[in-house]
Amino acid sequence: MTIAPQPGILNIALYQSGASSIDGVSNVLKLSSNENPLGTSPAAVEAYQRAAHQLHRYPGTDHAALRGAIGEVHGLDPERIICGVGSDEVLQFIAQAYAGPGDEVIVTQHGFSMYPILAHAVGATPVEVAERERVVDVDAILAACTDRTRIVFIANPANPTSTMIGEAETRRLAEGLPEKAVLVLDGAYAEFVEGFDGGAGLVDDYPNVVMTRTFSKIYGLGGLRIGWGYARREVIDVLNRLRQPFNLSAGQMAAAEAAVRDLAFTEKCRSENARLRHWLSEALAELGVPTDTSMANFVLARFASPAEADACDAHLKSEGLIVRQTGGYQLPQCLRITVGDEIACRRVVAAVKGFKAAQG
Length: 360
Ligand SMILES: *Cc1c(COP(=O)(O)O)cnc(C)c1O
What we know:
three-stranded antiparallel β-sheet; binds pyridoxal-5'-phosphate; amino-acid biosynthesis
């Protein structure tokens, strides 16, 4: 072959998504992608159906109604919001805009696997920084910064660890970074934390902080692909130059707007998740399977060894339960389990109990 891709592209390890079926097993329950067990707001489904009558029309390019709704609900300036095809697309704009060959992008040890993919895609070098007991380590990140650091990606709360760092720590990170580095606060799970602004306040205080959010998790719209980002106007202006004018369809925008405005549904999802997450972690702890205190809609179950985690995963599969292996996140002794509805949580606990009993 004489045609060759740009540097970095062949370094990309393809993203592994959560499985959704098991050969020969029925009544399968997918708890591997942190989807919303309560589905999505009925108002969002209705808005999406209404959009079906206008499929011959191009969508708007400025996302004004959706940005207005997000701004209203979250108390943010719509002029400083950008919408993307999932927050993944917003993260991609950030990588394209601020990093390239010769630049370094800091990711953390158990950080979301999209971050190194995005760094490689723009020819930059991902630099991995250790975490401390599955928690982002601000001192380690600051120590890893060089004059080539252009982006630091952290999710807060983090996936797959479910832990988060507090505002004082995030602030210390924003303040300590080199001037040329962008701090990306990925708030995919922010809505699960009562009273948390996802880092929006830090965006207001520091010119180099960008927050991203998604409709895929608490809003239950993973299948539709909508996310957004919040930053200084100058940053949003840069990102908008990379955005295709029609990146979001009318149906995506209509559903997302209805979803963000349905405060009652969101609140119900948040409180149900908190209740069942607590129940699930306590029940797992009683079976000798500890978890870190989760701030998200999943728990990271820790086993005695990678072999035990694998064996438990196989047992869960045989019972029709799909959870996420985390070996690729340097957590081979763990399994990430999405907090499902009450029946799902009970099935998980019963299956882990059966597994432990069979082990003797
Ligand atoms: C699920 C998730 C996202 C969301 O991605 P979308 O492209 O919006 O579906 C982003 N970051 C993290 C850490 C996630 O777990």
